[in-house]
Design a protein that fits this description.
This protein is mainly alpha-helical and about 190 residues long. The protein is built from eight helices and three strands. The chain has a three-stranded mixed beta sheet. The structure holds zinc ion (ZN).
């Protein structure tokens, strides 16, 4: 499959060089400062709450479609696929419960937030699903799911990166290794 076709279907995994960035910035600066609509495009928002309401109102409009719901007829499992720039949630009848819809939606949001190269049900997904459950289903559901994840040892956070080894520790390990080698030679 040619790369462009692949990208169209599955999303680009390697971003192209941002070659027209300065042109875009320059055009947008003119838009802001020279526009006769200056009062409109420079409208300021007072707080995060006001910005949230504004953004959610935009996303609710039908023409901004990030997620499309499909009936999933004939499918055994529910899924979330990325095709042609949108996440398609396919939900057969059995899967039309709040928890499953949120699970599939969490796939879309995980992909959106962390990119296409993370594991399907890695910590990124679990973290996103927990967030979604807390925000949509509430604290009790969140606590329950969190406890279940914990009981089943599901990771919901990135692995802590190991601090670099100190010189003393390195020396100690080298000494241990030397002792082990010496013991091996003797036997
Ligand atoms: Zn899943």
């Amino acid at each position: 499959m040619p790369q462009t076709q692949f990208n169209l279907l599955f999303g680009s995994r390697q971003p192209a060089r941002d070659s027209q960035r300065s042109k875009v910035y320059s055009a947008e600066a003119s838009f802001l400062y020279r526009s006769t609509l200056v009062g409109v495009v420079n409208k300021r928002f007072k707080g995060i709450g006001e910005i949230e309401s504004y953004v959610w109102a935009i996303l609710r409009r039908a023409y901004v479609k990030i997620v499309t719901i499909y009936s999933g007829q004939g499918r055994r499992v529910a899924c979330c696929e990325f095709r042609l720039g949108e996440y398609r949630l396919k939900l057969p009848v059995w899967a039309r419960t709040e928890a499953t819809i949120l699970h599939e939606l969490a796939h879309a949001l995980t992909d959106f937030k962390y990119g296409r190269n993370v594991a399907g049900h890695g910590w990124e997904f679990a973290n996103t699903y927990l967030l979604l459950v807390r925000n949509v289903m509430g604290a009790e559901a969140h606590a329950l799911l969190k406890a279940e994840y914990k009981a089943k040892k599901v990771r919901t956070k990135a692995k802590a990166t190991r601090p670099p080894m100190s010189d003393e520790r390195k020396a100690a390990l080298r000494a241990q290794l030397a002792v082990a080698r010496a013991a091996k030679v003797k036997s």
